[in-house]
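Model it.
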Amino acid sequence: MKTIRLNLKTRSYPIFIEEGLIVKTGCLLKNLMIGKDAVVITNNNLRKRFGAKVKNSLEKHGFTSKFYVVPDSEKAKSIQYCLSLINKISKYDKKKQVFLIALGGGVIGDLTGFVASIYKRGIHYIQIPTTLLAQVDSSIGGKTAIDLKVAKNLVGAFHQPRAVIVDPGLLKSLPKRQLKSGLGEVIKYAIIKDRSLFSFLKNNRKKIFSLDKKAIELIERKCIYIKAKVVENDEFEKKGIRTILNFGHTIGHALESACEYDKYNHGEAISIGMICAADIACNLKIFNEKDLDKIIDLIKLYNLPGRIKGVTLNKIMDSLVRDKKFIQAKNRFVLPKAIGKVIVKKNIPENIIRGTILKYS
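Modeled.
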């Protein structure tokens, strides 16, 4: 079993990576001193597929378990579902030592983490990510949030999990669209920090789409290691280091919000966002147009969208100005200088942003 430790002093935790780990959940948690009563947040489909494995493993090692189901969509990250979960947990939590388990993708991970951050001013939680996107990105780093209608992730908190259990075998049941969505985040990591990963993605499409064990574990290890090191150096995004993880997310999040979280999933939206960010960098003369073409080609290679459809420029711009990445009313973009290296630029002229969005619409 591969273990990557995210070192944050008293908030440090292990990220376990190995196929088949879901049936070892109870064993992995038994020495963490997180409580005895697990509340598992998941969706109905995942409960049917993996719920019994998690429940049996927990009970085998002395834990109790209670499952609560939320919808299988971004709409689960709402104030309504957050409050509903808190009410259910509070009624269940009598003479118990409750901790939460997020069994799902990024939506369930964000929602569960946020509930854990505010219930009783913070309780323990565990991440068991079931999508590629969550396994390489959203389950790690302690960013938790719910959405408002006007913009994504506006209500949130930093609250680190006590462990992340990454089982690549869970991806075998993943719909193709969700696999591609995760690959959008993998491409992001290649562009911001790892040119060799960019080349690996370019040359191993068939292996990755067929979920070849070695190929998937390689890209997961690389992405997880990058994120762990970035978070260690800037846990609360105060130094500008962690900001690089938002590459593609400024326009990507705005696109998701403008479409009311319905038309594009996260990986699809940030794929368009990465192309737009790279194009803005070319406009500012800090990025090579040949490398922009390489990014566009790689995104196309993985059948991810490169153009905006079905939403107006004004709606995207309205969502953009509400984005939490705006600091003192000034926009903030992560822009590539080269494949494998990015910088943070503030106050990009609005005409350049509008022109870029129109160019890819």
